[in-house]
Design goal:
It is built from 18 helices and ten strands. The strands form three sheets. It has a five-stranded mixed β-sheet. A three-stranded antiparallel β-sheet has the order 4-10-9. A two-stranded antiparallel sheet has the order 6-7. It starts with a helix and ends with a strand. The chain is α+β, with helices and mostly antiparallel strands and 457 residues long. β6 and β7 form a beta hairpin. Bound molecules: protoporphyrin IX containing FE. The site of protoporphyrin IX containing FE has 25 residues, from α6, α13 and α18. Protoporphyrin IX containing FE binds next to α6, α13 and α18. It comes from Medicago truncatula (Barrel medic). It is an enzyme of class 1 (oxidoreductase). Pathway: Plant hormone degradation; abscisic acid degradation. Its cofactor is heme.
């Protein structure tokens, strides 16, 4: 055989091998399992479909994709290849298989909240933290703070009386104070103003460009973060000297058996405030809006709340609310459930595949982001009839399994859900029984809503 023919055969063989491997890597980018990727489009190189998603309502972007590709589809957003999922079963699978899907956040968010905060972890460290947090927020632990929550609610409402308020901002003050109460117990009031000043600067920079140069919002937020950690260190060392018995989240974290360093404690305190405040304030703001738009629902809620007061008067009981009263508010509880569904304030969450995962015949490659789309699950007509309609009575019947997950699912599901529901019930009780809401122009600017609140005479 001539040397040129031999070279030709060798070159052709090399070309076929290279071409095959190129095709294989393109279609099956990980370790070459012969499984297809989910349907969908990856958009343009580098930018993917980021502009398509941000130039419209993200829910609409997802809804159109679901219509076209089904409940599981691929995309490429903010520099990351991802798989979006909108079927209840797939969402449950991803959120419960924690060894296959780990939580994932941008590095700048981790730096700002604190790298040791519960959300960013898996395994033993996460399980230990979760046990401590759950212990402080389970019904048995929060039962005793109903009167304190009530007192915070009454103070807030009094300060709004007769004024035109921006609902979301005021609700954030209420939920911030309740979060501090659950963390620092009776000491909450001592630290309120200092912590508030720093935390409010931190939040302003949370969603800013992560450029750490003097003058930028990010830089100011990082400075406030440092100051917050210093204040928390001070609080921890003061408590150690006092040697009093406390029964709050900080005490749980400081328990020697918990084995946490001061830095781990302060990262997690900042984390819990972050998780507790805006979420609950947002739900309260939507409740005020839905009650205003649905007078018959407002009337039923008011009747239910008035009957609690009447019952107490008839039985000669103390007028303040107690835990049992809050368990006797089925109509108001359904209003909360329906608000959580319609507003779906956490539209989706993020996980990252820790290895190549096969799901329903598709490959989710290692390193890809996976997004369970809570809002689309809550707004699917397959799961909820007339999903856009605000109808609390739909919760008279339990929803289909896994179709309602406002507090997530699996090992990272919200440990603060009982506290959130409790503080909402307490505030709604006082709002509807003692005040009249006069709705002003409702302007939705990042959830802000203006309402005038007047004391009932
Ligand atoms: C209505 C208000 C709230 C909503 C809708 C909500 C929703 C959620 C959701 C969906 C998750 C899971 C996120 C994921 O899997 O990626 C979560 C986690 C979490 N929430 Fe909430 N939450 C609320 C209020 C609270 C409150 C009041 C607290 C604390 C007192 C709290 C503390 C936490 C913590 C610490 C986590 C992280 C748990 C972990 O990683 O193991 N949340 N929340």
């Amino acid at each position: 055989m001539e040397i040129t023919t031999l070279f030709f055969y060798f070159a052709s063989f090399l070309f076929i091998v290279l071409f095959k491997s190129l095709i294989k890597n393109f279609l099956f980018p990980s370790n070459g399992k012969q499984l297809p990727l989910p349907p969908g489009s990856m958009g343009y190189p580098y930018i993917g479909e980021t502009f398509q998603m941000y130039s419209q309502d993200p829910s609409l972007f997802f809804a159109n994709k679901i219509k076209r590709y089904g409940a599981m589809f691929k995309s490429h957003i903010l520099g990351c290849p991802c798989v979006m999922i909108s079927s209840p079963e797939a969402a449950k699978f991803v959120l419960n298989k924690s060894q296959l899907f780990k939580p994932t956040f941008p590095a700048s968010k981790e730096r700002m909240l604190g790298k040791q905060a519960i959300f960013f972890h898996q395994g033993n460290y996460h399980a230990n933290l979760r046990r401590l947090v759950l212990r402080s927020f389970m019904p048995e632990a929060i039962k005793s703070i109903v009167p304190n929550i009530e007192s915070i609610a009454q103070t807030c409402l009094k300060s709004w009386d007769g004024n035109l308020i921006t609902t979301y901002l005021e609700m954030k003050t209420f939920t911030f104070n309740v979060a501090l109460l659950s963390i620092f117990g009776k000491d909450e009031i001592l630290y309120r103003e200092d912590l508030k000043r720093c935390y409010y600067t931190l939040e302003k920079g949370y969603n800013s460009m992560p450029i750490n140069l003097p003058g930028t919002l990010f830089h100011k937020a990082m400075k406030a973060r440092k100051e917050l950690a210093q204040i928390l260190e001070q609080i921890i060392s003061t408590r150690r000297c006092k040697k009093q018995v406390y029964n709050d989240l900080l005490a749980s974290f400081m328990d020697e058996k918990a084995g946490l360093s001061d830095e781990q404690i302060s990262d997690n305190i900042i984390g819990v405030i972050f998780a507790a405040r805006d979420t609950t304030a947002s739900v309260l703001t939507w409740i005020v809006k839905y009650l205003g738009e649905n007078p018959s629902v407002l009337e039923s809620v008011t009747e239910e709340q008035m009957s609690i007061i009447k019952g107490k008067q008839e039985n000669g009981e103390e007028i303040g609310l107690n835990w049992e009263d809050t368990k006797n508010m089925p109509i108001t509880s359904r209003v909360i459930q329906e608000t959580l569904r319609v507003a779906s304030i956490l539209s989706f969450t993020f996980r990252e595949a820790t290895e190549d995962v096969e799901y329903q015949g598709y490959l989710i490659p290692k390193g890809w982001k996976v997004l369970p789309l809570f809002r689309n699950i809550h707004h699917s007509p397959e799961n909820f009839k007339e999903p856009e309609k605000f109808d609390p009575s739909r919760f008279e019947v339990a929803p289909k399994p896994n179709t309602f997950m406002p507090f997530g699912n699996g090992v990272h599901a919200c440990p603060g859900n009982e506290l959130a529901k409790l503080e909402i019930l307490v505030l709604v009780h006082h709002l509807t029984t003692k005040y009249r809401l006069v709705y002003s122009t409702i302007i939705i600017i990042f959830d802000n809503e203006f309402v005038r609140i007047t004391m009932l005479m």
